[in-house]
Amino acid sequence: MKRKIIQLLKSVIFVVILIVLVFVVQWSFINHSDPSYQNINGFYDQNENMLDAVYIGSSNCFTYWNPAVAWDEYGVAIYSYSANNLLFESSEYIIKDCIKTQPGAKFIVNINTLVGDELEMKEIHNTASNMPLSLNRFQLVNHLCNIGNFSISERMEYYFPIIRFHNNYSSVLPGNLLYKNDGFKGSSTYEPYVRITTDVSSVYGKSNEIGELPEYLIKSTDSLLDYCDKNSIDVVFVTVPQARSEEKNKMFNALNKFIADRGYPVLNLMEKTDEMGLDRTCDFYNIQHTNIHGSIKFTHYITQYMIEKYGFTDKRGDKNYADWGGMTEGYFNAVSPYILDVERDVRKRDFTLDSPTNLILSDGTLSWDTVENAEYYHVYKKEGKTMPWFRVAEKLTDISYYDEHFVDGCIYTVVPVTLKNGEEYYGNFPYLGIPMDEKDVGNVDANKNLED
Amino acid sequence: MSYQSFAFIAFSALVVFVYYLFGKKVQKWVLAVANLVFYAVSGIQYLPFLAVTMISSFLAAKRIGLIYEKLDADLSGIEDMAEKKALRNQAKADAKKVLGVGLTIAIVLLAVCKYTLFMVRNVNGIMSLFGGPQIEMFKMILPVGISFYTFMAISYVLDIYWKRYKYEKKFLNYAVYLSYFPHIVQGPIDRYNEFSSQIENGVSFSYENLTFGAQLSLWGFFKKLVVADGIGQIISPVFSNWQTSNGMSIAVALVLFSIQIYGDFSGCIDIITGVSEMLGIKLRKNFNHPYFSRTMPEFWRRWHISLQEWFKDYIYYPVSASAFTKKVKKNLKSKEMKRLEELFTSCFPILVVWLITGIWHGASWNFVVWGLFHAAVLIGSQVFEPAFAAVNEKLHIKTESFLWKIWQMARTYIICCVGRIFFKAPTLSAGVGWIGRMLSSWSISSFLNDFGIAGGSNILSVVLIPAWFIAVLWLVDMLQEKTGGLRAVVAKKPLVIRWILIYALLFSILVFGCYGPGYSASDFIYEQF
Question: Does this model's pTM top 0.95?
Fold first, then answer.
């Protein structure tokens, strides 16, 4: 009998060690460099009950919402809990996870990413596989797999992501072993987002028509709203401005109405691009995502809305939020080759001032056409495409500038400035500067992209 | 249900649990239900075929057994020798008729299911030469495991006919044997008396059976998922694009294929043998480290042992003792052709066995050629054995030296690889095409491109990691060859060492195994037979 007990005990210990090792090894194969992992994993490193709000969404979240900008200008701590293809249908479970450590936080939920005709593998993995192990994560997987009508064998890879990712050993393991979260709290440094501008005005369309909601989406949304009602959770629902097909527009309109009818605030920002100052010719990097320039404007708009609605206070200087201060410094250093200092505060922008046209650089002399209503101009320079912008000349009243330190490879841009009550306000300007790299200018293929 | 699936692992675990939970008296019923579920999941439409073979072979053996029992009873009361002889002859004739019926049903079912389309294709081919009408091709049902369970049924009926043991009175016992889920799909081809004696009185729980069985299954998964499927990923593009593949690439792919098929087949056997061991039932050994063989005859005593022994017992010996063979032997003896008589005695049955072996492996001419190739090699080794021995002696070759053994193993391995041209090729013409390319186009740069390692890319995944695991496989096989039972040796090591080895094996499978989405389903190679 004693022998049997010892054998049983050994078996139990063996299995327990095995389970622990499986989950440790499994963690090693999730790509830690992926923004989805960085954003989600980084949330769980935040100090408890310190966030004003959590913004939940897919790439429509982390390419629109910029926590560094919100903190830098307003002292508001709103974390971007976002992942590529993170589905709206996951929101209830993500909120449940978030309130474990941030019980007082408000929520902003993006509704732009819904299950399409077929639930895709990445839509589950990008969210669930990056979340810490918990019963809630298990329930989220079940919920999404039920929507996709997945069989038991099809679900196994979501319960045990190592089934999907185990062959990543050569591509992912070395980076994962050196993993360190960038600490940007979801502020994106995604390369196309910082680098590319695309004119999406030709495909951007609005619709007021209301479509039909599929049954599973009604159930999912009802469940989410019931949960929020029951737990008194404040949520604002957002539809970000983006080019999309007529069918999708109708779907989002229907969902907006459904949520609004339940008494929750819905911001349909398709209507608000002018109010935000979003320029469809240059504030997007593709038809579905703003670039960093557009996201700064978007972030300001949302932050002001949230402050007005919930009375968030300015916590800059509060030593409990020292990590946020450090974060913004690090973030703006990282993106300094792509944005100018004058962009950071949208309250200091005057979008009625057009971008200077006919920018010409010749032997160190930069010239441009006059901008109506501009008092003067600031000239910015960077000494290489990935070098930081800095102001090289200011308050120029001429429409030309000679840089005696000009060398090949230097890039320039011009910002028109107007004065209101003695204070400077900055107009539009060419983000890419001159000489421009054509690879940084995106293309729009209306027929192809709108079907996605 | 594939043996490498999560479903099979869960199924086996459940069966093992229930098997011991309800005690010895119910164990046969547990197995019967498990066998039925397993087979039904594989394809419920196949059940009638299994049932027909099972019932007909059971009844045939029972009838034969009753004939012999009646004979024994009748003989005990008779003194007259002539009358006894007449009774015996009558009983034998009756038993033979029943045997004929029993075997015919099983063989006809196998032939119809497996070879009808082959026959139709050949008839159509002949008819097309003369502009004749074509028989329309149709989808033929091929029950899972039919090649294996038919042979088991045949062996049972013949064993009863040859009075090797008593016939089974209980249908349940026989049904459990024939449909036993670990061996029904790919063997080994067990014998009824060896199987039934293990389950006759039920099986007591044994911790050693459970752990040893689990370890063996784990090793099987390693061989299949890490070694065999890993190699499969590397070589399959070479074979599927053989028309443009370099000759050197095809040759190397064949060498690797021999490792793949060993890992695949013996891996599967280890998985199911391990599961069976957990149930306290030991199956026939099917592999004995065949690549350590020094000659081809030795190779075929170490590879797919249960099939070779089946052919030996039910084809080779009966053909050797057949009236035809005896007649030819007598003829040759009368002409004082002693050497020819000796060769005919051993070689003619070899030819018959290998012709059937080739056909058994597949309904395709390339398998027939494969079978004949090995027949030629085995016959050749018999014919030229004295000559080889004379040459070795003349050259003073130390045939037991280490280097000579290595040379023999390498030579045997290469002969296997050559034979596998027709085993692996999808058609006869493709096999000929492979030989043509191997003889005509050799280029190092094309070879590197074919395997995707030009410029040093993919060296880790294509060369280093597979080489490492092949080395592990070879090392373990060598240790097993030397120790005769590596699990027992490992069991004596300290707990920490044992657990490290098992965890290392588990995580090798978990990380490097070819499973999950992203890998195309790589079914066991021998499942197709």
Answer: no
